Amino acid sequence: MLGRLNHIAIAVPDLKRGAEIYASLLGAKVSSPQSEPDHGVRVVFVELLNTKIELLEPLGENSPIKAFLDKNPVGGMHHVCYEVADIMAARDHLVAAGARVLGDGDPKIGTHGKPVLFLHPKDFCGTLVELEQA
User: What is the pLDDT of residue 3?
Assistant: First the structure.
């Protein structure tokens, strides 16, 4: 069911500073910031040869990233994103197997313009998992 690793997301308290760290210290190519109001975040992508790192900062007081940063003020790994060929088939398979899909269970359009779902971290070894339709 799983395709390639699409990205690893890191929550940061300051997106500009996080982008500077990756660009200056590590010499990485970093995208321009983009706001994703439906997900409550502003993001940049650090482009690597085989995947991406997504840096996330809260967009507003109701952002799920704000709650994460309240518990982890310096930031930290937030989720991993895997590609799937058919997000609805993947969702149905996972739900039938007992996994929990967060939210209402319906995919939302993610940062890359493709449908995404998030899976409960307690069902995946303590890691929040995002699925993105490839």
Answer: 96
